[in-house]
């Protein structure tokens, strides 16, 4: 691995100036948000619907006609899975995630209201608003406050206390990727507290009620209702839905992990953020985030989380603006001597895999303490 880039220490005045420049960029961008952005998100909304419908129809054709003509089974089935997976990816990444952040509340469109939008995954939007919009975006990479650091399953950073369980985390990481939406669904239940006896079973069941209801609806929709429409040929539709959901889970996992757990990403202690101002908050978002270099297709398919830095800076700005904002953000970071972490998808994911493999093993206490001290000082 290459040496981690050094960030220049900023004086209090420089931190204030850094924040002022980024705040000004946000204000300028929001002042120009309007019809083009509304047209864009409505086009995404329609794409989700039409790709989803096409996928459902093609899977039905594959199930019924494919039972008699084998080429139809493979061609229609493959196209159906890909179309349905594309619909689910777009709905989760570019539509649901960004709408739930309130990026399009200004449109006053009930279908795109971040306070009421419910998306097509096992977890509830309400839990996501709590664990992601509030907890993660407020306390990004702060140990003990941001539950997204390893999601309670993985040791990604040396500052996390090592346990023998982490020896199997390369396998756990693969299973977690396949079942990612289900892991996200139960994240706010904090099952570790229940296993440790710090949460009562009655409390856990109460918290699980809305989550369980959403899980049941998702299972009935994808694995019962639509397959049964194919009658005796239900198995093809069922398998198609399973594969489409797995593809969506794998892609979501890939993008999220590449945006947070590359080699240059840092974590922070609670003490280091006690007196954190606006400039310090921006600096923490920068040092805890990673961009993925790519073109317009990657931006769309990732929900523009290919610009994770910009998203962490400006979570309420329409994400389709991030690519343009990134040019100025990168220049601002350069002026203040701050590393702007970006790289290709294979490069960033390779670093994520290295972290998962390396930190499955115990870290040398001296190395971990040195990293922690450097971050606290930064």
Q: What is the straight-line distance between the termini?
A: 22 Å
H-E string: HHHHHHHHHHEHHHEHH
Spans of at least 5 consecutive residues with low confidence = 365-378
Helix content: 55-70%
Q: Sheet bearing the most strands, described?
A: 2 strands, parallel
Count of spatially separate domains: 2
Number of helices: 15
Q: What's the total number of strands?
A: 2
Strand order of the largest sheet: 1-2
Shape: globular
Outline of this structure?
One of its GO terms (molecular function) is oxidoreductase activity, acting on paired donors, with oxidation of a pair of donors resulting in the reduction of molecular oxygen to two molecules of water. The chain has 378 residues and is an all-alpha fold.
Give structural attributes.
378 residues, mainly alpha, 2 domains, two-stranded parallel sheet, 15 helices, disordered C terminus
Describe it:
- It contains 15 helices and 2 strands.
- With 378 residues, it is an all-alpha fold.
- The protein has 2 domains: 12-33 and 123-196 and 253-377, no CATH class; 34-120.
- The longest helix is centred in the first third of the chain and has 31 residues, at 70-100.
- The radius of gyration is 22 Å and the shape is globular.
- Pfam families: FA_desaturase.
- GO terms for molecular function: oxidoreductase activity, acting on paired donors, with oxidation of a pair of donors resulting in the reduction of molecular oxygen to two molecules of water.
- The chain crosses the membrane at residues 57-86, 165-185, 223-244.
- Keywords: Membrane, Transmembrane, Transmembrane helix.
């Amino acid at each position: 691995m290459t040496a981690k880039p050094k960030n220049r220490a900023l004086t209090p005045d420089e931190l204030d100036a850094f924040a002022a420049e980024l705040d000004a960029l946000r204000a300028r961008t929001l002042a120009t948000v309007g019809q083009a952005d509304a047209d864009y998100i409505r086009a995404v909304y329609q794409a989700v619907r039409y790709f989803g419908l096409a996928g459902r129809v093609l899977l039905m054709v594959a199930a019924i006609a494919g039972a008699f003509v084998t080429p139809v089974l493979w061609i229609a089935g493959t196209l159906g899975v890909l179309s349905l997976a594309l619909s689910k990816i777009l709905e989760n990444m570019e539509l649901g995630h960004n709408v739930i952040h309130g990026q399009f509340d200004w449109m006053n469109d009930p279908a795109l209201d971040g306070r009421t939008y419910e998306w097509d995954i096992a977890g509830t939007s309400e839990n996501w608003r709590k664990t992601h919009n509030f907890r993660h975006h407020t306390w990004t990479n702060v140990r003990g406050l941001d539950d997204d650091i390893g999601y309670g399953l993985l040791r990604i950073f040396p500052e996390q206390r090592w346990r023998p369980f982490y020896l199997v985390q390369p396998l756990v990481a693969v299973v977690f990727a396949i079942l990612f939406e289900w892991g996200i669904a139960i994240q706010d239940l904090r099952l570790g507290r229940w296993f440790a006896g710090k949460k009562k079973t009655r409390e856990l069941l109460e918290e699980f009620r809305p989550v369980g209801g959403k899980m049941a609806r998702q299972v009935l929709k994808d694995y019962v209702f639509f397959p049964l429409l194919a009658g005796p040929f239900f198995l093809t539709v069922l398998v198609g839905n399973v594969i489409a959901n797995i593809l969506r889970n794998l892609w979501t996992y890939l993008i999220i992990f590449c945006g947070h757990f590359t080699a240059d990403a840092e974590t922070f202690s609670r003490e280091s953020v006690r007196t954190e101002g606006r400039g310090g908050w921006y600096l923490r978002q920068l040092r805890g985030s990673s961009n993925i270099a790519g073109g317009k297709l990657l931006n769309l398919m990732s929900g523009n989380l290919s610009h994770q830095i910009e998203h962490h800076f400006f979570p309420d700005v329409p994400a389709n603006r991030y690519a343009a904002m990134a040019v100025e953000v990168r220049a601002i970071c350069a002026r203040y001597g701050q590393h702007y972490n970006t790289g290709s998808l294979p490069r960033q994911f390779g670093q994520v895999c290295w972290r998962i493999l390396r930190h499955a093993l115990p870290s040398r206490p001296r190395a971990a303490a040195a990293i922690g001290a450097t971050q606290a000082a930064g």
